């Protein structure tokens, strides 16, 4: 996805396909502090909300809001465990290719029933090529999804069907071990066709032109405003256990402004950057979080021969001192990367994937070698010099990234770099259109499997924005998601080999693994954070006295 206080969980419910923890209240009189009269949480965001269209959402801010105003078949909770959502139970066939979800009776915020047909419609809308969803590829394992996206089969042939209002059957092309994690993600949430059709192009473009089936509903958002509010959804099936009345999100791009608003009581939680983490590490309100969010640089290999030159890409990577950036510039819990897939995301037989698949030369600094390779690339492409623009968002972290990388790249002979820091929405648009020379971007894991990162860089993937392409890489990813999908050890090796191919060819330039330091008021209780996916769940949060 373009990225501690914990909730106390209730009893464990055994479902047909496995064990899911049932979400219980966090604030009964016997196990929690008394609640404040005003149950409003004010929360900082670094960027404005881009969209609330489930089929078109691609970023962490949208996902966070969607995750709290909507609900899928399953929900993600503490330590990324799975919980019942709209589905109260599910079963899996012996061959692992058919899932049957038994839905509870629940409602949309307008009173309509949430039915299996809402999931069928939503999934079909997302994979329909006319929708142009950048996340449609996540449905690739569902029967006929890839053929539909290539205009080779009808949308109605997608392997999902409603058997009555409260039974949903999904057919996959092959077993997918992490499929339950996928359906808990916002891209797999239901959509109300009547509402989508009614609002047409205005659908989900503001708070009013939408409906919600989650713990909250969006009640204040113009579609372009920097601030938005979600309010308790009385129609939600588990509304009795939702304690907050409102969560008010405020976009604050300047770290000092955010700190001032926090100290004056205008914000209950803020993200820290620059020198702030170092200054507040000893505060009781300081919270350091790990994140499965990787920051990296993509160079546009569509535009000219220079960025298609492997030596040029390697030189740009070798010029960067990542340890200096994370330790001296960020100093917020961020760490230098070992590759693309983040440390701690997934392991097999006790071995972390990131450690197994690393290529040290792809993430280390060697300025002497960098200069040599850059000179060779200039000569091979018939140049004496090269100019490029480095783009990133206009947040504090984005500006720190471009300034630092520019200072490192300036050491390469004949290279002139111009920084461009623009609003987050503009970054997303430029990524999608290919309107950049080089761009600092990031991806947050949608689920705890290396494929969430590695599938991005297959040929033709909409998130392969630099258009790097490698046939060996494509074959390895195809094997991991196809022939070897049910062979755990073989699939693991496919993915390790794939990352090594990507790194050896410097298809991307890994930059850093992001930390997520915060200041959170001591009376904010029960917020659930998970390092993958939409990150935040406010459905069990409350404000203590």
Short description:
The chain has 545 residues and is α+β, with helices and mostly antiparallel strands. The chain has 17 helices and 28 strands.
Commentary on this structure:
It is a single chain. The chain is α+β, with helices and mostly antiparallel strands. It is built from 17 helices and 28 strands. Strands 21-20-22-17-23 form a five-stranded mixed β-sheet, with helices on both faces. Strands 3-14-13-12 form a four-stranded mixed β-sheet, covered by helices on one side. It has a four-stranded antiparallel β-sheet with strand order 6-7-11-10, with helices on one face. Helix 9 (310-318) runs antiparallel to helix 12 (367-380). The longest helix is centred in the last third of the chain and has 17 residues, at 488-504. The two termini are 36 Å apart. InterPro entries: Peptide/Ni-bd, SBP_5, SBP_5_dom. Its main location: other. Belongs to the bacterial solute-binding protein 5 family.
Structural class: alpha+beta
- Main β-sheet: number of strands, strand sense, barrel status? 5 strands, mixed
Sum up the overall morphology in one term. globular
Number of helices: 17
- Write down the Rg: 23 Å
Mean pLDDT: 91
How many beta-strand elements? 28
Q: Looking across the biggest beta sheet, what order are the strands in?
A: 21-20-22-17-23
Percent strand: 15-25%
Q: How far do the termini sit from each other?
A: 36 Å
Helix content: 25-40%
Low-confidence stretches: 3-31
Assembly type: single chain
Signal peptide: 1-21
Subcellular location: Cell envelope
Keywords: Signal, Transport
Organism: Levilactobacillus tangyuanensis
């Amino acid at each position: 996805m373009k990225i501690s206080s914990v909730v106390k969980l209730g009893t464990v419910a055994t479902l047909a396909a496995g064990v899911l923890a049932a979400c219980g209240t966090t604030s009964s009189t016997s196990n929690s502090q008394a609640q404040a009269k005003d149950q409003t949480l004010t929360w900082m965001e670094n960027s404005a909300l881009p969209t609330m269209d489930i089929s078109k959402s691609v970023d962490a801010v949208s996902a966070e809001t969607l995750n709290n105003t909507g609900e899928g078949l399953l929900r993600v909770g503490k330590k990324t465990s799975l919980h019942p959502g709209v589905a109260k139970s599910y079963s899996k066939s012996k061959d692992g290719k058919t899932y049957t979800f038994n839905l509870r009776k629940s409602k949309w915020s307008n009173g309509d029933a949430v039915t299996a047909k809402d999931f069928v419609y939503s999934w079909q809308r997302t994979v329909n090529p006319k929708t142009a969803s950048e996340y449609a590829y996540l449905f690739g394992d569902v029967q006929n999804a890839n053929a539909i996206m290539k205009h080779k089969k009808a949308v109605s042939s997608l392997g999902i069907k409603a058997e009555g209002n409260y039974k949903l059957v999904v057919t996959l092309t092959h077993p997918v071990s992490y499929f339950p994690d996928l359906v808990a993600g916002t891209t797999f949430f239901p959509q109300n066709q009547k509402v989508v059709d009614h609002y047409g192009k205005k659908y989900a473009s503001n708070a009013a032109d939408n409906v919600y089936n989650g713990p909250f509903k969006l009640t204040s958002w113009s579609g372009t405003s920097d601030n938005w509010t979600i309010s308790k959804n009385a129609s939600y099936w588990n509304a009795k256990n939702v304690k907050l009345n409102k969560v008010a999100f405020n976009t604050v791009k300047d770290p000092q402004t955010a700190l001032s608003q926090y100290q004056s009581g205008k914000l209950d939680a803020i993200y820290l950057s620059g020198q702030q983490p170092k200054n507040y590490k000893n505060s009781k309100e300081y919270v350091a979080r790990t994140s499965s969010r990787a920051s990296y640089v993509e160079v546009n290999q569509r535009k000219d021969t220079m960025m298609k030159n492997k030596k040029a890409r390697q030189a740009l990577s070798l010029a960067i001192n990542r340890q200096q950036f994370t330790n001296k510039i960020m100093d917020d819990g961020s760490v230098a990367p070992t590759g693309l897939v983040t440390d701690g995301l997934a392991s097999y037989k006790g071995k972390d994937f990131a450690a197994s698949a690393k290529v040290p030369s792809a993430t280390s600094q060697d300025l002497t070698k960098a200069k040599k390779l850059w000179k060779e690339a200039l000569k091979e492409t018939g140049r004496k010099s090269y100019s490029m623009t480095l783009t990133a968002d206009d947040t504090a972290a984005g500006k720190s990234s471009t300034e630092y990388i520019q200072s490192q790249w300036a050491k390469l002979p004949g290279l002139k770099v111009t920084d461009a820091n623009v609003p987050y929405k503009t970054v997303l648009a430029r990524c999608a259109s290919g309107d950049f020379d080089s761009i600092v971007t990031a991806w947050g894991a949608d689920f705890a499997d290396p494929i969430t990162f590695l599938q991005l860089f297959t040929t033709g993937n909409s998130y392969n924005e630099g258009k790097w392409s490698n046939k060996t890489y494509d074959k390895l990813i195809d094997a991991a998601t196809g022939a070897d999908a049910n062979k755990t050890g073989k699939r693991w090796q496919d993915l390790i080999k794939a990352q090594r191919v990507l790194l050896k060819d410097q298809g991307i330039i890994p930059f850093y693994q992001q930390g997520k330091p915060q200041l959170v008021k001591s009376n904010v209780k029960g917020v659930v954070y998970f390092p993958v996916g939409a990150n935040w769940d406010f459905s069990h949060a409350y404000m203590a006295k």
